[in-house]
TrEMBL record:
The lineage of its organism: Bacteria, Bacillati, Actinomycetota, Nitriliruptoria, Egibacterales. Belongs to the acyl-CoA dehydrogenase family. The keyword DNA-binding does not apply. GO terms for biological process: fatty acid beta-oxidation using acyl-CoA dehydrogenase; fatty-acyl-CoA biosynthetic process. It comes from Egibacter rhizosphaerae. Pfam families: Acyl-CoA_dh_1 (PF00441), Acyl-CoA_dh_M (PF02770), Acyl-CoA_dh_N (PF02771). This is glutaryl-CoA dehydrogenase (ETF).
């Protein structure tokens, strides 16, 4: 006897996961249901990130979970992606915290750091007892990080850093910042190096960015470095040139690919529940053709995004994932998630703009995902170069 179709997984994508992946995903989903969803509307409205979540995420093994050793869980990239999907179904702020902590800061230390640096930071960060931020973007150097103006100069055995970084997630709550700076002539990408900068260092300031309409439950800061002195051992020795930070960004973007699918799913599920319970003209609005068309469009976009994310996760685990494929996933999944959020908001009518429902909150957050860790325009040009062999950046 044929089973009834599952309106939340019409394609049966759950069958593509193994038992371990499903158990991990379900545990993260329960955590989000218990610890995030009851309060996220208030956190968003109050622009508050509950720092205590860091240790809770650490206790679940979600911080740097795809890294090996040093207290990290050593899971697959796909499992990491599924965790990001569930965290972002709660809110982008929670997924962003975990992504920056694990895929930017911890990954940078794990890949480019010394054994001493790894021992000093990774176990505490995996447990959520220490928090990190990643300082690459500047006010005048966003899509073109090679144009950064932050500098690091030698002074005896020390390095002295001067400059500023903008739009830095976790900046105001971090214990350590991975700061990328020019060590040679400004504009020469080969002179870029990474440094581990304790946030209590003299001359280091993290200024909160206020009046955000997106990622409100996330800590976003401007970092100012005014003659910050760090020892020679603060440099990440294996990172040379712009390839270092860009590789970190590519590592983190897989989490966004999965995360955007989670936000889209949350919006679709909210719209479906609303359409099958809300009555107008004496019947459920889900029984009207226009609303069914919206629901079907959302379902297709959600499941397509989940397929893209899962495929890229598998390729990452196989060691065959290419950077332009990550660009494809981020561009596709974030754009589709935005369309799902906008459509779901229409289904919910006036209720769609309130924090009682998740839709407008996700829509606002997704507006940040469109431009951070590579704008939609930049990823489009990456794909254009891949299919034509012609470089539109030059």
């Amino acid at each position: 006897m044929a089973r009834e179709p599952d309106p939340y997984d019409l394609l049966g994508l759950d069958s593509l996961l193994d038992e371990t992946e499903r158990m991990m995903r379900d545990s993260v989903r329960r955590f989000v249901a218990d610890r995030v969803l009851p309060d996220i509307g208030r956190w968003f409205e109050e622009a508050h990130f509950p720092v205590e979540l860091a240790k809770e995420l650490g206790s679940l093994g979600l911080l740097g979970m795809h890294l090996e050793g040093y207290g990290c869980a050593g899971t697959s990239a796909t499992a990491y992606g599924l965790a990001c999907q569930e965290l972002e179904a709660g809110d982008s702020s929670v997924r962003s915290f975990a992504s920056v902590q694990g895929s930017l800061v911890m990954y940078a230390i794990h890949r480019y750091g010394t054994e001493e640096q790894k021992q000093a930071w990774l176990p505490a960060m995996a447990a959520g007892e220490a928090i990190g931020c990643f300082g690459l973007t500047e006010a005048d150097a966003g899509s073109d990080p090679a144009g950064m103006r932050t500098t690091a100069r030698r002074d005896g055995d020390d390095w002295v850093l001067d400059g500023s970084k903008m739009w830095i997630t976790n900046g105001g709550i971090a214990d350590v910042a991975v700061v990328w700076a020019q060590t040679d002539e400004i504009g020469d990408p080969t002179g870029i190096r990474g440094f581990l900068v304790p946030t209590d260092a003299s001359g280091f300031t993290a200024n909160p960015i206020h009046q955000k309409l997106s990622l409100r439950a996330s800590v976003t800061s401007e970092l100012v470095l005014d003659g910050v002195r760090v020892p020679a051992g603060a440099q990440l020795p294996a990172a040379e040139g712009l390839a270092g930070p860009l590789r970190c960004l590519n590592e983190a973007r897989l989490g966004i690919v999965f995360g955007a699918a989670g936000a889209a799913r949350a919006c679709y599920e909210s719209a479906l529940e609303y359409a099958t319970t809300r009555e107008q003209f004496g019947r459920q609005i889900g029984g009207f053709q226009l609303q069914q068309g919206k629901l079907v469009d959302m379902l297709q976009r959600v499941q397509r995004s989940q397929l893209v994310a899962l495929h890229l996760g598998r390729r990452k685990d196989e060691g065959t994932l290419r950077p332009e494929q990550v660009s494809f996933g981020k561009l596709h999944n974030v754009n589709d998630a935005l369309e799902v959020a906008r459509t779901a908001r229409q289904v919910l009518g006036g209720n769609g703009i309130t924090l009682e429902y998740p839709v407008m909150r996700h829509a606002n957050n997704l507006e940040s995902l469109v431009t951070y860790e590579g704008t939609a325009d930049v990823h489009t040009l990456v794909l254009g170069r891949a299919v034509t062999g012609l470089n539109a950046f030059a």
